[in-house]
Amino acid sequence: MDSSALAFTYLFCALLVGGLIVRTVLASRQIRHVVRHRDRVPDPFAATIGLDAHRKAADYTVAKARFGMLESAIEAALLLGWTLLGGLHALNQWLLQWMEPGMWQQLALLGAFTLIGAVLTLPLGWWSTFRLEERFGFNKMSLSLWLGDLLKGAVVGALIGLPIAALVLWLMGAAGPTWWLWAWGAWMVFNLLLLVLYPTLIAPLFNKFEPLQDETLKTRVNDLMKRCGFAAKGLFVMDGSKRSAHANAYFTGFGAAKRVVFFDTLLKQLAPPEIDAVLAHELGHYKRRHILQRTVLMFALSLVGFAVLGWVSRQAWFYTGLGVVPSLDAPNDALALLLFLMVVPLFTYFLSPLIAQLSRRHEFEADAYACAHTDGNDLASALLKLYKDNASTLTPDPVFARFYYSHPPASERIARLQGAAA
Ligand SMILES: [Zn+2]
C-alpha cells in the first residue's frame, strides 16, 4: 500500500473512532442529565406537566439514547466490515465471477450491497419499533404491517433508485472528466421530480390521505392561510395513527402540487386554536423562505459532494485506503459510489452542530411568525401537549441539545413564546 493510501486509512480510522467517541460521550451526558432531573418537573412546567408524564419522558429519552449508542457501535462495525475487513471487495469479486464487467454487474453490486445492509440492520429496526416504541405505548404497527412496509419500501426504492443509479453510472463512464457536473444536474432533476411525485404517488402507498372533513376547522385554516397569503391545493388528513401515536403536521410538494397534511393524531390531541397556531408555525417556515434556503443549501452541498466524488474516484488511494483493490479491466464506478456514500457521513457528522444551529434559528423565526398571525399562548400550549404526548424530555443536556437538536429545547422555546404573547 502506498503512503497516500495509508494516510487515508489512518484518517478514516481516526474519523470512525473519533465519531464513535463523540457520540458516546454526548449520549452519556444526555442520559446522566435526564436521570438527574427525573424526579422533579422544571418550575415553568410544574402546573401543566405531571410528575408521571415527566418521568415517562425521562425514561423514553434514556432508552432512546442507549439504543442510539448500540446503533452507532453496530454501524461502525459494519462500516469496518465493508471496508478495511474486505467485505465490499469480496462482494465485488464474487459478482465478477458470475457476471461480465459492465453496467449490469455494477447495478448488481449496488443492489446486493443495499440488500445485505438492510438485512443486517433489520433487527435494529425491529427492536426500535417492537421493543422501544412499544414499551412506551407509541407503536401501533402489527408485525405484518411492518413487514409489508419493508417490502413496499424495497420495491419502491428499487423502482426509483435503480434507474437513477444506472444514469449516474452511465455518466461516470461516458461523460468524460466533467461527468460529475452532469450527474449533479441529473440528481437535481431527479430530486425535483421526487418532490412532485412523493405526495401524489408514493406517500399514498403507505398511508391514506383524506380531504379534511371538519367544516369549522376547514374554515379556520382557510382563513389563516388567506391572512398569510398562502395558496395550497388541499388540506389532507393522514392516518398516522396506523403506525404510531406520535403527532405531526407538514407541507409537501411545491407549486400547484402544494398541500397541507395533518396527522389524525394531531387533530385528536389539539384544540382548533392550537391547530391554527401549529399550522401558522409551518406557514412561517414557508414564508420566511426556510424551505427554499434548505433546498438551495442541499443543492450546493451535493454539488460539492459530486465534485469531490469526481476527484476521489480517479485516485487509487481512495480505493486501496479503504480495503478495495480497483479492477484494471472493469469499471470501478459503483465501487467509488459505494465507498463515497459510506465515508461521507464520517466527515459530515462533525458538521451536525452547524446544521442544527441553523435549524433552531429557523424554528425561532417560524415561532415568531406564528405569534404575529395567531396567539402565541396557543402555540405554547400546543407545544406543551405535543411534548407531553411524544414524551420529549423537558430537561435535555445542554451540550447534547446544542449538537443535535433541530428544535430549540422546550424551556427556551416556550419562554420566548410566552414573552412574545405577553
Ligand atoms: Zn418548525
TrEMBL record:
Residues 30-208 form the CAAX prenyl protease 1 N-terminal domain. This is M48 family metallopeptidase. Binds 1 zinc ion per subunit. InterPro entries: CAXX_Prtase_1, Peptidase_M48, Peptidase_M48_N. The chain crosses the membrane at residues 6-26, 76-95, 107-129, 150-173, 179-198, 296-314, 334-352. Pfam families: Peptidase_M48 (PF01435), Peptidase_M48_N (PF16491). Belongs to the peptidase M48 family. It comes from Hydrogenophaga luteola. Residues 211-419 form the Peptidase M48 domain. Keywords: Hydrolase, Membrane, Metal-binding, Metalloprotease, Protease, Transmembrane, Transmembrane helix, Zinc. Its cofactor is Zn(2+).
